[in-house]
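Why Integrase zinc-binding domain-containing protein? Reviewers of the renewal asked for a concrete example.
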Amino acid sequence: MASRPTIVEQCIRLYSRNSGFKLLYKFFKESSGGSDVPSPVELARSLRANIDHFFVEDNILYYQPSVDDPRRICVQDDTDLRNATFYEYHDTATSGHSGYLKPLLAVQTTFY
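Here is what the prediction returned.
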């Protein structure tokens, strides 16, 4: 039986697909050179306005609004991934099925 990929592994896999973060991820991964690197102009206006708050580390795209804030993993607009993420923070044995607000706040501080 194959093991299920982690949420982070799913995020990394989805960065290369057609998603809101695809061009941003490619911009940071390939910005060291090359003609196929997208220019910031090709990014959505909301991403361009906050481009200084994004970075890639260990193949993971992060968002960090300020130095004092925790960095958050960028999660694509993928229903299955978002459901799996909320399940991890809501229904697993370690989270204790604590209603919706506590896991929602935990997800919002970890993921963007």
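The two ends are 31 Å apart (CA to CA). This is the kind of structural detail the renewal will allow us to pursue systematically.
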